[in-house]
Amino acid sequence: MRYSASGSRFWHLVAVKIRMNLKSEAAQSQLNYLWWVLEPALFIAMYYVIFGIFLNSRTDDFVAFLIVGKIPFLWFSRTVNNASNALVAGGGLMNQINIPKIFFPAVVIGQDLVKTVFVFLLMLAILAGMGYEPTLNWFAIIPIALMQLLFVSSLAVLFSALVPFLPDMKFIVGTFVTLMMFASGIFYDPMQFLKPEHKELFFLNPLASAISMYRKVLMENTLPDWAYLGAMAGACLVALFAAISLLRLFDSRYPRLVLQ
After folding, report:
1. Is 89:104 a contact under the CB 8 Å cutoff?
2. Residue 41 pLDDT > 80
3. Is the Cβ–Cβ distance between 14 and 107 less than 8 Å?
4. Considering only CA atoms, which of 172, 200, 199 is closest in space to residue 188?
5. Under 8 Å CB-to-CB from 192, ≥6 apart: which residues?
6. Phi and psi for 30 in degrees, rounded to 5?
């Protein structure tokens, strides 16, 4: 059976596969779905001890600053790392049915997005508990998250398209994700530490821009620059279409490549 990426059957299959994967993943842990929020909480605690206590970089709002930076990064790193190997991992299914190869990174993106929604809700609850008053401005994180989703998806699809040709690229992906951790202002305020001539270049990184906008909305109750957000989202959308086009270009070659 031939599926079309634009057909309702295809996206129903994607949704079914996401649901099955989430249930299977939860069943592998005794904590089940609780692990989705416990894992990022442990990461935040670890970095707080390192940067907030041992390196004495605490400020009054350091914990909130760290949470709002680390949670979006965990979404980015998890999806990009997982999706980079999506086609190779799906080689068995790929050689059984004729399906557009976008199916495999799309499942990973959707699966991690579902988990991220719960983690973001936890983040908002923690911030409210810390004294940051929820306002209508907090709804602005939705378009910011959509921009980040476009950025994450573009890289996820791109790396998934390239790894079957260059298997060692999965190591480059890991290094790239680590680089992005230090290049996105998770542990430091780029407006405070960067030289003025470097700030514009720094915020060309969509992840750094997203984290900065999350912080302005949630911690400063300030709406983002809508024109800048729209321009960044447009650029990420173009990158996503380019990555999908690359994946389609080599669609027929992947079943042989993943079996090598």
Report:
1. yes
2. no
3. yes
4. 199
5. none
6. -65, -25
